[in-house]
Structure formats: structure tokens, C-alpha cells
């Protein structure tokens, strides 16, 4: 099943994972789902926007959004959880990348 069909059929967020090399349901490991309310495409149909309701955290290191730091590395986002307390299979690589910036 492709990510597009999965999103349309289940009304849940799916994303392509380069590390897993497959589409996966957002929140598959932690249970933090994205309930899709609308799907928009741009004028040449090469990008989409999902209007969602987020249940739980989004960023694998515990923030509400993965965009939680300024270019100067100042943390401006809200930390919601400790990843080790939630994720069954936590990707330490993501945490290592953040500490090296």
C-alpha cells in the first residue's frame, strides 16, 4: 500500500522513512497519531499539506514540532515528553544528530 492510499483510506498520517525505506504510520512506535482532516495539493501536484489533529508528540526527541530550534540553536519549542519514556524503539541517531549541532 502506498502512503497516499494509506492516508486517504485510514485518515491517518503516513510518511516515507528513508531509514526504514518504507511508508510508515506516524506514531507507529509511540502511539502518537495524526488524524487527517483534509489533504491539499499544490498547483503542479508535487507537494501536499495535511491538515491534521495531532495526538501526542511529533518530534522523536520529545518536542511538539521538529522545528523547535532557531538557526542559532536556541530552543524555542515546547518539550512535551522524554523519548525514552514513550518510544518502544527510540532512534538514538536522531538524538545524537541534535547534540552535534
The global form is globular
Which percent band covers the strand fraction? 15-25%
Q: In terms of per-residue confidence, which ranges show pLDDT below 50 for 5 or more consecutive residues?
A: none
Number of distinct helices: 3
Counting structural domains, the number is 2
CATH architecture of the largest domain: Roll
Radius of gyration: 15 Å
User: Quick one: how many beta strands?
Assistant: 4
CATH fold descriptor of the largest domain: Ubiquitin-like (UB roll)
Instruction: Tell me the CATH superfamily of the largest domain.
Output: Phosphoribosyl-AMP cyclohydrolase
| Percent helix | 10-25%
**What topology, given as strand order, has the largest sheet?**
1-2
**Secondary-structure element string:** HEEEEHH
- Global mean pLDDT: 79
The CATH class name of the largest domain reads Alpha Beta
How far apart are the first and last residues' alpha carbons, in Å? 36 Å
For the largest beta-sheet, the strand count, sense and barrel status come to:
2 strands, antiparallel
Structural class: alpha+beta
Pfam families: PRA-CH (PF01502)
GO molecular function, one term: phosphoribosyl-AMP cyclohydrolase activity
EC number: 3.5.4.19
Catalytic activity: 1-(5-phospho-beta-D-ribosyl)-5'-AMP + H2O = 1-(5-phospho-beta-D-ribosyl)-5-[(5-phospho-beta-D-ribosylamino)methylideneamino]imidazole-4-carboxamide
